[in-house]
Amino acid sequence: MYILQAINIHKNFGSLGVLHGVSLQVQKGEVIAIIGPSGSGKSTLLRCLNHLERIDSGQIEIEGETIAQNNSEGKAVYSSEAKIAQARRKMGMVFQNFNLFPHKSVMQNLIMAPTLVKNMGKAEAEESARLLLAKVGLSQKADNYPFELSGGQQQRVAIARALAMNPDIMCFDEPTSALDPELTGEVLMVMKDLALEDMTMVVVTHEIGFAREVADRVIFMDEGVIMEEGQAEEVLLNPRQERTSAFLSKVLMAR
């Protein structure tokens, strides 16, 4: 059984088609990197998997539970709001721009969801948060506010905050794209450590080196479809599709 599965999903924004029949299966403990040019549908796919956007047609399953599937008219119908909320809790989400609460300290950012959503006691949530801050190398920053942190530190806090809900799957939407090159490494190191711990991860990224080193599979998207997918080395070093090859050449030339 796949931990996460999307079957033939379509997503439109008004008259603009963004995803055109995308299918994706994720095994437990697998790291999948999704690459492709801007506007190819990568981030929209991730948001659909995490139910931040609703698909127009297709099917989504998490841990064998069907969250969305087509009705007789071929349009996606979702499960109850309670089931959607439950599914979302199984998926941690890390965004490009950190999305921390600016008026709350690092500790307050980390304990908010566990105490409100999981009804965890404050002392237990704080203990868990301290362990997570140690994990991302920020033990000394618990009382700081986001504006007092570098971009790399803010993103590491965002990762710790997502982990505070003890998710089964971690989704990353270009987590280093808003960072200066020298801050990128510290975030990628945390993600590499998670991969070594067998965390299931779906990562939209432009970091080709990271994808090659850490991902089990790489998916190349363009114009709302999956153009190519396979083992990381295979796709990145020996792409079968001319479009994949052209994209990789441009990305590598720009570095």
TrEMBL record:
Subcellular location(s) per record: Cell membrane
Classification via PROSITE patterns: ABC_TRANSPORTER_1 (PS00211), ABC_TRANSPORTER_2 (PS50893)
Domain ABC transporter: 4-248
Cited CDD domains: ABC_HisP_GlnQ (cd03262)
GO molecular function: ABC-type amino acid transporter activity; ATP binding; ATP hydrolysis activity
Membrane topology: Peripheral membrane protein
InterPro entries in the record: AAA+_ATPase, ABC_ATPase_HisP-typ, ABC_transporter-like_ATP-bd, ABC_transporter-like_CS, MetN_ABC_transporter-like, P-loop_NTPase
UniProt similarity note: Belongs to the ABC transporter superfamily.
Identification of the protein by name: ABC transporter domain-containing protein
